[in-house]
Structures are given as structure tokens and as C-alpha cells.
Amino acid sequence: MSSSTPPGPSPSNTPRPIAPRVWLYFVVGQAGWFVCVLSAARGVAWIGGAFVLATVVWHATRVAAPVPELKLVATAVLIGALWESLLVASGLLVYPGGALIGGTAPWWLLALWALFAVQFNVLFGWLKRRLFLAAMVGALAGPLSFRAGAALGAVRFGDPVLSLFALSVGWAVLMPLMLALARRWDGVHVLTDQPDGRAHG
């Protein structure tokens, strides 16, 4: 009797095993947030910046396709710079320091956006096709994150009610936007075109 290939997906259509562990990214993300915020509040923001840089490099070495992930990080930082600087220029958010140019967001806050970006295709994949839910998550989690940052001394609200409202509306838009970009640049979930697991270009 001739041998036959067992049923199942062929190697060319088999997703490469995902190296990143969800729980590990959750821990790193939470730790990074505290390191960035606390170091900024104490005037040593470079510590948080170094943590985020190390995290991005670590992430790039773990994923199947680092280039799209780095594109996502760069785009997130650009979006964050525009959005956060708008809040600063309007007087809704006031930071004690760290801005490279007057009237713009501090650089350490942009590092937080980079930290956020490396988590999207690992932690938030379940929200990619639930954009309305993603908007609700953003509308709630965004203001809460900044409220916690204010409690730790890293930021001050120019007008607490208006500031939190603006953050809620802004993050209701930003969260789905970032998820759409994460779907476009997903270096975590890729298909392989070789039996040895090399990523499909």
C-alpha cells in the first residue's frame, strides 16, 4: 500500500508558531508604563526611554517578521506625537518637562506609544475585528491611564473635566485606528512558505 500524506494544513499555509507569550507582554507592558511614568515624574525620564528601547529591540528579535512591527512602532510614535502635542498646545495637558520643542508632547510620552505599539499584535488581536468594542475600550482606558499618570505626578490636567472628555473621545478614535494599522503591519501572525518555517515575504 502506498503511503499518503496525513490530512491537515500544508506547510505553505501553516502559520508560524507565535513566539511572543501574551502574559509576558502584559507584564512587560505594565512594568514599562510604570517605569516611564515614575521616571518622568522624578526627572529621570531616560530610564523609561531605555526600558522602552530595550523592549522594542527584544520584541523585534522574537517576532516572525520584525519589519512590519517596526513600521507599526514608527507610525504609532508619529500619531502619538501629533495627538499628544495637540493636547499640550490646547492647554488640556501640562507636563513638568521632557518636551524637546516648546508646546509639544514630552519625548518620554512618545516612548510610551512605542511600548503600546509592540503589544498590539500580541495582546489586542482579539479586538481587531471588534472595532466598536475597541472604541469603547479606548474611551474608558485612555482617560484612566492619564488619570493614573496624574496621580503619580507625571502630568497635570489644565481642566480636569474637559481634559478627560477629550481623552475619552480621542482614544475612542485612536484605539480602532491603531488596530487597523496593526492588521496592516502584523509581524507576529505570518504565513510560512517553507517547510522549515521561514516567513513568507
What does this structure look like?
The protein is mostly helical and 201 residues long. The chain has one domain. 61% of the residues lie in helices and 2% in strands. It is built from seven helices and two strands, in the order αααβαααβα. The chain has a two-stranded antiparallel sheet. The chain is globular and about 50 Å long. The two termini are 39 Å apart.
List the helices and strands and how they pair.
Elements (H helix, E strand, L loop, with lengths): L21 H20 L3 H18 L3 H24 L3 E2 L12 H11 L2 H4 L7 H21 L4 E2 L2 H25 L17
Antiparallel strand pairs: 1-2
Helix pairs in contact: 1-2, 1-4, 2-3, 2-4, 3-4, 3-7, 6-7
Distance between the termini: 39 Å
What is the helical fraction, as a range of percent? 55-70%
Summarize the main sheet: 2 strands, antiparallel
Which segments are poorly predicted (pLDDT under 50) over 5 or more consecutive residues?
A: 1-19, 192-201
Q: Count the DSSP helices.
A: 7
SSE succession: HHHEHHHEH
Tell me how many strands there are: 2
Average residue-wise pLDDT = 86
Number of domains: 1
The proportion of strand residues reads: under 5%
Give the strand line-up of the largest sheet. Answer: 1-2
Shape type: globular
Work out the radius of gyration: 19 Å
What is the multimeric organization of the chains shown?
Answer: single chain
Q: Which structural category fits the helices and strands?
A: mainly alpha
Task: Give short descriptive properties of this protein.
61% helix; two-stranded antiparallel ribbon; 7 helices; globular; mainly alpha; 201 residues; single chain
